[in-house]
Amino acid sequence: MKGLVYKSTGNWYDVHTDSHEVYKCSIKGKFRSLGIKSTNPVAVGDYVFFEINDEKEQRGVITKIEPRKNYIIRKSVNLSKQSHILASNIDYCFLFVTPSNPSTSSLFIDRVLLSTESFGINTIILFNKIDSYDKDDTDYIEKLYKTYTSIGYQCLKISVKQKTNIEKVKKFMENNVSVFTGHSGVGKSSMMNALDSNLNLKTSEISKQNEQGQHTTTFAEMFDFNNGAKVIDSPGIKGFGLIDIEKNEIGGYFVEIAKLSTNCKFNNCLHLNEPNCAVKSALEANDISESRYVNYLSILNDDENNFR
Ligand SMILES: Nc1nc2c(ncn2[C@@H]2O[C@H](COP(=O)(O)OP(=O)(O)OP(=O)(O)O)[C@@H](O)[C@H]2O)c(=O)[nH]1
Ligand SMILES: [Mg+2]
Ligand SMILES: [Zn+2]
C-alpha cells in the first residue's frame, strides 16, 4: 500500500491512503532515512509504502520511503550528532514572528531563512498578533517588515485573534503543502483553528513569568483544508541548528548577499575584510540591512552550527 504520513510521534506514524483510510504504522527494523541520520527516519509529509499487518485495527509497517522533494531538518536537543526531520515535501514554509510574548529576534529569523533557502523552500513571514502591539512592538515589526520585503520575501501582518489577513494566508496555501514554524506561543495552532473552526487544536496562553510559550504542540501533524491545502502544524522551536552547510556556502543563502557577491573581487570572499568586497561596499552605502550582515557574521562565527 502507498500512503502519506500525516503524523509522527516517534513510535507511531499515521499514514493516510488515497481513499482516506488511516493506518497506524511502525517502522520495519532500523532503516536509515534515505541516508540521513535522524531521530525520526520517517517525517510528516513523506510518501511511504507499507504492509498491512492488521486490517481490523488498521495497523501496518512502513517498508520504504519515496525520495523527498525537500525537507526541513534541525539538530536534536542534546544529541549534537543527531537531527530531526521536521517535515518533508513542502511548498511553503510560514514563519510566525511576534515582537513580544514571545519575542522573536532577527537572528532567529535569519537562521530559519538560511535553513529554508538551503532546502529550497519558499518562506513567507507572518507578523502575528498585530492587535496587541505597543509602540515599540510596532516600530520593531515595521523595521523587520521593511528589511524582509526589500530582500524579496513575502511578508504579511496578521492577527489570528481578529482574523486580519487570514484569507490572504489561506490563498497562498491553496492546493499546496505548507508548514508552520516559529517559537512556541506565536500562534501557529491558533491559526490552524482560525482556518478551520472544526479543528479545535490545543493552544495555551503565554507564561506570564517568562513571556514565552508553553510548548503546547508536541508532534508535527498535517491537516487537510477545504481549498485543497495541506498544512503541517509543528511544535515551537527555540533554535534552528544548521546542518550540512559549509562556512563558505552561508552567504549564498542570504539572498541579497548572494546577489552582490558576484561583484566581489575574490570569488571565495567571505565579506569580512577582503579588498573590493561588494557586500561591504553595499553595507557602507546602506544598500543592505545592517542586521542581516551582523546576523550573517554571527552565524559564520558560531561554532555551535556543526559546520563540516
Ligand atoms: N493577541 C493575540 N493573541 C494571539 C493571536 N494569535 C494567537 N494568540 C494567542 O497566543 C497564545 C499561543 O498560541 P498557540 O496557538 O498555542 O501558539 P503555538 O505557536 O501553537 O505554540 P506551540 O504549540 O507551543 O508551539 C494563545 O493564548 C493564543 O490565543 C493574535 O493574533 N493576537
Ligand atoms: Mg501549537
Ligand atoms: Zn565580499
**Number of DSSP helices?**
7
Distance between the termini: 38 Å
CATH architecture of the largest domain: 3-Layer(aba) Sandwich
Task: Count all strands and give the number.
Answer: 13
Physical arrangement of strands within the biggest beta sheet: 10-9-8-11-13-12
Question: In which range does the helix fraction lie?
Answer: 10-25%
Poorly predicted tracts of residues: none
Instruction: State the name of the first-level CATH class of the largest domain.
Output: Alpha Beta
The ligands bound in this entry are:
guanosine-5'-triphosphate, magnesium ion, zinc ion
The fourth-level CATH homologous superfamily of the largest domain is: P-loop containing nucleotide triphosphate hydrolases
When the domains are counted, the total is: 3
Largest sheet: 6 strands, mixed
Residue share in β-strands: 25-35%
CATH fold call of the largest domain: Rossmann fold
Give a verbal description of the structure.
With 308 residues, the chain is of the alpha/beta class. It is built from seven helices and 13 strands. The chain folds into three domains: 64 residues, Nucleic acid-binding proteins (OB fold (Dihydrolipoamide Acetyltransferase, E2P)), CATH 2.40.50; 163 residues, Rossmann fold (3-Layer(aba) Sandwich); 59 residues, Ribonucleotide Reductase Protein R1, domain 1 (Orthogonal Bundle), CATH 1.10.40.50. Strands 10-9-8-11-13-12 form a six-stranded mixed sheet, with helices on both faces. Helix 1 packs across helix 7. The structure holds guanosine-5'-triphosphate, magnesium ion and zinc ion. The site of guanosine-5'-triphosphate has 25 residues, from helix 4.
